[in-house]
């Protein structure tokens, strides 16, 4: 299966910053999360993917094409939703999406149809003739997604598509992104610093830190078991404080417990021993067990465990 993006020894050196450091990656079809803190190299990688920058060294291919030499041809097959607010305030959403579909090469009549269809898909059917300047942040984010998919690209790149959205809008946006891939077969690369939403919707992850690869692979591969058990409890009304009592008993039994409400992450000995300890503590505390399973690594764990060590400061001393 041909990767959507493939790089070999990719380096991007700016005058005072090494933005990407010998990056080797393969992005397969599906929904891929590009994650990392600000300054990790995400935006630089996106710019190279779109052919807007020329790499200092190494190679990159996107959909089998070289973005440096085949930029116009490649960009006709890619949709892009930028992070920044770059929408023209005095233009109607429909006109904006239709115009960009025509720029991508669609005939005028087809561009009109696609503009309406894509705006309906993202939930802006009734608002499609409103000026962009009168729209909320959430609506403008949806317009950026609509224009990215209007020309039926093979692949779309979305840079922080949930930025500025409230929790309900964030959930709706993520659901639409999944639908775009599942129902229309459009591959997606989603750049985000919110690890939780990447875990929720992505099949594959590329994690960067200071221009270096931290991890890449499928969510299933990366989120393998990491030792310990995850527990979700129900705090019964007839036994007040039962969850806190479970936590106390687990700690008294020698386990380390991280608690978020009624959800516990328990480590400290072999998993079999922890399963037995949890069962005994729950039974003795009067709580009810909703879920118990082996602990899985989160993307946060991956960053903590796999982040490359910072280079030692240079100087004359040892």
Mean pLDDT: 87
Total E-strand runs: 13
What is the architecture of the largest domain at the second tier of CATH? 3-Layer(aba) Sandwich
Task: From the alpha carbons, calculate the radius of gyration and give it in angstroms.
Answer: 24 Å
What order do the strands of the largest sheet run in, or round the barrel if closed? 5-6-7-3-8-9
Assembly annotation: single chain
Q: How much strand content do the residues show? A: 25-35%
Structural class: alpha/beta
The top level CATH class name of the largest domain:
Alpha Beta
Order of helices and strands: EEEHEHEHHHEHEHEEHEHEEHEH
The coarse silhouette is globular
Distance between the termini: 49 Å
Major sheet summary line: 6 strands, mixed
Q: Helix amount, in percent?
A: 25-40%
Low-confidence blocks of residues: 309-318
Q: Give me the CATH superfamily of the largest domain.
A: P-loop containing nucleotide triphosphate hydrolases
Please tally the helical runs, counting DSSP H or I stretches of 4 or more residues. 11
Describe this structure in words.
It contains eleven helices and 13 strands. It is an alpha/beta fold and 318 residues long. The chain folds into two domains: 5-222, Rossmann fold (3-Layer(aba) Sandwich), CATH 3.40.50.300; 225-296, 2-Layer Sandwich (Alpha-Beta Plaits), CATH 3.30.70. A six-stranded mixed β-sheet has the order 5-6-7-3-8-9, sandwiched between helices. It has a four-stranded antiparallel β-sheet with strand order 11-12-10-13, covered by helices on one side. The chain has a three-stranded antiparallel β-sheet with strand order 2-1-4, with helices on one face. Helix 3 (93-103) crosses helix 4, helix 4 (108-121) crosses helix 5 and helix 9 (242-252) packs across helix 10. The longest helix has 18 residues, at 167-184. It is globular, with a radius of gyration of 24 Å. The N and C termini lie far apart (49 Å). Residues 309-318 have low confidence and may be disordered.
């Amino acid at each position: 299966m041909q990767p959507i993006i493939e790089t070999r020894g990719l380096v991007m050196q700016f005058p005072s910053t090494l933005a990407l450091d010998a990056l080797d990656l393969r992005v397969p079809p599906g929904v891929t999360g590009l994650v990392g803190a600000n300054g990790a190299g995400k935006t630089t990688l996106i710019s190279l993917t779109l052919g807007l920058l020329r790499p200092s060294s190494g190679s990159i291919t996107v959909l089998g094409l070289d973005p440096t030499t085949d930029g116009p041809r490649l960009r006709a097959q890619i949709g892009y939703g930028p992070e920044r607010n770059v929408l023209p305030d005095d233009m109607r959403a429909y006109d904006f999406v239709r115009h960009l579909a025509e720029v991508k090469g669609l005939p005028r009549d087809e561009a009109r149809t696609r503009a309406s269809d894509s705006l309906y898909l993202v939930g802006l059917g009734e608002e499609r003739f409103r000026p962009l300047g009168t729209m909320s942040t959430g609506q403008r984010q949806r317009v950026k997604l609509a224009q990215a998919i209007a020309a039926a690209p093979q692949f779309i790149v979305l840079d922080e598509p949930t930025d500025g959205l409230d929790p309900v809008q964030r959930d709706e946006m993520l659901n639409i992104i999944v639908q775009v891939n599942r129902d229309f077969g459009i591959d997606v690369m989603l750049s985000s610093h919110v690890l939780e939403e990447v875990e929720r919707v992505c099949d594959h992850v590329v994690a960067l830190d200071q221009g270096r690869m931290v991890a890449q692979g499928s969510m299933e591969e990366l989120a393998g078991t990491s030792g310990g058990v995850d527990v979700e409890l129900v705090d019964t009304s007839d036994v007040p404080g039962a969850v806190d009592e479970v936590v106390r008993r687990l700690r008294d039994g020698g386990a380390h417990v991280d608690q978020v409400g009624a959800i516990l992450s328990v480590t400290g000995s072999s998993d079999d021993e922890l399963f037995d300890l949890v069962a005994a503590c729950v039974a003795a505390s009067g709580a009810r067990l909703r879920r118990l399973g082996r602990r899985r690594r989160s993307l946060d764990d991956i960053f903590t465990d796999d982040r490359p060590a910072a280079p030692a400061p240079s100087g004359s001393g040892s």
